Amino acid sequence: MEMFLMAICLSMFGLAVAVAAFGAATRPEQPAPEIQPEAVKMPNVDRPRFFAENLVLPSAAQPRVPIEALLLQIDSHVRLEHAAAESFLEYPTAALLHSRTISPLIQ
Q1: What burial class does residue 58 get, using C-beta atoms within 10 Å of its C-beta: 0-12 exposed, 13-18 middle, 19+ buried?
Q2: Is the dihedral of CA 89, 95, 101, 102 positive or negative?
Q3: Domain for residue 97, yes or no?
């Protein structure tokens, strides 16, 4: 009898928790009270911004690489990965599966 009463009490407690969670999930969202800003301050245009005077563009500092060179590197990478896949299919081992590639694109 005690075990039956314990099961009923735990079931009622579980039901109460489920009802509370369902009620919290389905409660309509109350809109947040709108806060009126006092005044929008415009930044002073005369003053330099944070680190703006030392601005360095990284693309201008590095020389441009021709697209043909990039395409050759990608082609080489694809060929190396294809060769690695073929060698794994010929003789599959865990060492080959987890070994690093020799491609210069992946560091």
Answers
A1: exposed
A2: negative
A3: yes
Cα(39)–Cα(71) distance, integer angstroms: 54
Q: What is the pLDDT of residue 97?
A: 75
pLDDT of 40 higher than 60:
no
Range of the domain at 71: 65-107
- The two tokens of residue 85 are 């896949």
Asked whether the beta carbons of 80 and 54 are under 8 A apart, the reply is no
Number of domains in the chain: 1
105 and 73 Cβ atoms separated by less than 8 Å: yes
Percent helix, percent strand, percent coil in the chain, to nearest 5: 55, 0, 45
How many distinct helices (H) and strands (E) make up the chain? Answer: 4, 0
DSSP 47: S
**Which three-class secondary structure state does DSSP give residue 62?**
coil
